[in-house]
Specification:
Keywords: ATP-binding, Kinase, Lipid biosynthesis, Lipid metabolism, Magnesium, Metal-binding, Nucleotide-binding, Phospholipid biosynthesis, Phospholipid metabolism, Transferase
GO cellular component, one term: plasma membrane
CATH topology of the largest domain: Tumour Suppressor Smad4
GO molecular function, one term: metal ion binding
Organism: Paenibacillus monticola
Distance between the termini: 9 Å
Bound molecules: adenosine-5'-triphosphate
Number of helices: 11
Helix content: 25-40%
Shape: globular
CATH architecture of the largest domain: Sandwich
Pfam family, one: YegS_C
Strand content: 25-35%
Length: 318
């Protein structure tokens, strides 16, 4: 039995439209399912936990929505052994990209109905769980600005979600000021005097496909950290095209760190986001919860083929 969790307003209404098409395909294929429409993150966490506890035989929990919708059910799915599947219907869809899940409905549904999952790490902090990345500083401010903007709705309406982030970057570049930050990685402190951003990543990408930590792997038991510091506004602007390909990592004003626990304290209050959702402006303390969430992903197939004993599995369909 599959549990479909639908956020009808993700992607500016794409969630609802996607569900109508998916439901048709499920009926054609005679797949057993239950559906759950959710209207807020809090409601979703509670309803999903209730549904999962009512019966034992869930094959997967399939989210139709964007990164925020997936974020809302992490607490309910963590350690449940019910795998998460994703049919992307958001504007950024970074979770889907990071797990190699196709962005087209039919192909994503094939993955959701398959049985190959990765045992993904989760980022755990005072504000709960995050799957993709906890970002603080400039890019969190971009997200805050985009999420409260008129241009996000317009870009979603014309199917150009990524364009909203580009507009948001330019908007934030004019107003944001860098400041001192302390980043403690597995207890070792690194201090940067004029820091723009600190990103703690489980997946390589966020912000609609930017490869901020290109070497990050969901199932490696580590967090990858990118710090951008000591550069001018103009250098920061020129950095963004390089991030699309992950080529920024060798620049002199980019520092990459790695660890299992990361604490970030800015000298001035700075916004943070997890999976694109606001985490407020308090200092961050994030640790890696190894293999805490099963995720149905095409990457699991290659992991299984590549090495025995990897944190991935393909089982007979039930
Ligand atoms: N389970 C949920 N049901 C309904 N609304 C939710 C749920 N989880 C989060 N939300 C709210 O809906 C908003 C939009 O959802 P979501 O983030 O999935 O889509 P998006 O913003 O269009 O895409 P993306 O996050 O991929 O850019 C969230 O920012 C949050 O405010």
């Amino acid at each position: 039995m599959y549990l479909f969790i639908i956020n009808p307003r993700s992607g500016g209404g794409a969630g609802h439209r996607t569900w109508l098409s998916v439901e048709k395909l499920l009926k054609e294929r005679k797949v057993s399912y239950e559906s759950l429409f959710t209207h807020s993150a809090d409601e979703a966490e509670q309803l999903v936990a209730e549904r999962l506890s009512h019966q034992e035989n869930w094959t997967a929990a399939v989210v139709i929505g964007g990164d925020g919708t997936i974020h809302s059910v992490l607490g309910a799915l963590r350690h449940s052994r019910v795998p998460l599947a994703v049919i992307p219907a958001g504007s950024g869809n970074d979770t889907a990209r990071g797990f190699g899940i196709p962005l087209t409905l039919e192909a994503a549904l094939e993955v959701a109905l398959s049985d190959c999952y990765l045992e993904s790490d989760l980022l755990s902090g005072a504000d709960g769980l995050t799957l993709t990345a906890v970002a603080s500083g400039f890019d969190a401010q971009v997200s805050e600005n985009v999420n409260t903007s008129w241009y996000k709705r317009l870009c979603n309406a014309i199917g150009a979600g990524q364009l909203a982030f580009i507009i948001g970057i330019l908007h934030t570049l004019i107003t944001f000021k860098p400041c001192r930050v302390s980043v403690a990685c597995d207890g070792t402190e690194h201090v940067y005097e004029t820091a723009w951003l600190v990103s703690i990543c489980n997946l390589p990408n966020y912000g609609g496909g930017f490869l901020i930590c290109p070497q990050a792997k969901a199932d490696d038991g580590h967090l990858d950290v990118c710090v951008v510091h000591g550069c001018s506004r103009w250098q920061l602007l020129r950095l963004f095209p390089t991030v699309l390909k992950g080529r920024h990592v060798t620049l002199p004003f980019v520092s990459m760190l790695r660890g299992r626990s990361v604490a970030v304290t800015f000298a001035q209050a700075r916004h943070a986001i997890g999976d694109g959702e606001s985490l407020g402006t308090e200092p961050l303390a994030v640790r890696c919860e190894s293999g805490a969430l099963r995720v149905l992903s095409p990457q699991a197939v290659s992991s299984v083929l590549a090495a025995a004993g990897t944190a991935a599995s393909c089982q007979a369909s039930g």
